[in-house]
Amino acid sequence: MNRAKSSKLKHILGGLFFGQVLAVCNALSGILNQMISQDASKPHPGFQASMNYILICLTFGIYMLRQHKLQVISSKTGIKCAVNGIIDAEAWFWIYKSYNYTSLTSIQTLDCLSIPVAIVISKLLLRKSYNIRQYTATAFSVAGVFMLVYCDYDGKDKSNMEGDLMCAFGAALFGLSTVFQEWSMGNLGVFTIMGTSCWFSLAFIVLKVVILERSAVVATLTSPSHRVMGLLGGLALCQYVFYATMPVVLRRYGSAAATINILAADLYAAIASDVLFHFHFAPIYIAGMCVVAAGIVFYTLSSEDEDGPGDGSSNPLLERDPTPTEN
Questions:
Q1: Element (DSSP H or E) covering residue 169
Q2: What are phi and psi of 206, to 5 degrees?
Q3: pLDDT of 269-295, one tens digit each?
Q4: Per-residue pLDDT tens for 208-258?
């Protein structure tokens, strides 16, 4: 009995910890993107995303090739990873692009759209079931985010609708991507899935950079600013940690848990907006942040009843299937 309670507590605390690692990385990425959009001479969202994929390919990608060569890429799992990689790259392209049109607070709040997308797609694709407490917690968090959005639109500094639509589209794609990544895993380890998807993401995003951003990238590289290059490096590092943590959360807690925990980035972004960008909070904004936090905690406490892909009993970092071509 005590062992069961200890295991349950460990599972809950683990979900909160890894979920908040995702949230902190997401918030830092948003802050750095906002600074880059202010300092860079021309926008280059694809180039910003590509640096993260380069880091992933140099680590996870090389690991996968050394372990499996091209077996995973040429299997059914490889097709799943290709779909996930392309969706993921497209999601970050539009989210990064939106920083040139709208505010940090708008972007961090509009990412709530990834939650209902993740829940609906995981229910259809993975046949997952959610209990009433989890639906309630999700509704709670989304309601809190809409309170934040209301404050953002009700203020004097109106957000640009074009940028908000870009962010909403990217957030929906991100919710789809988290489910596809969970779907791709099967019995394979985290490193293999990450190492396969990253090659497709990098190829896709580099193609977009060549077609759409050649002049912007040349302008940045030929007249480098130490501040901009430092921000780009910090962004790549934050996203790398985000990607290294995401599969662990997906394996042990599920895609819905990952997306709802990322909403805590709204809280961190709000604090950063006050400190760095001098954004002042209305009372309803603070109330909205509290509602989001309450929803995250409530969902995590309910997670042990989720019929998800991991119960915390196995190590999600271990390879579990030596014959990936059968997947």
A1: helix 161-185
A2: -65, -40
A3: 767 766 666 666 677 777 877 787 777
A4: 999 999 888 888 888 777 888 899 999 999 989 988 887 777 777 766 666
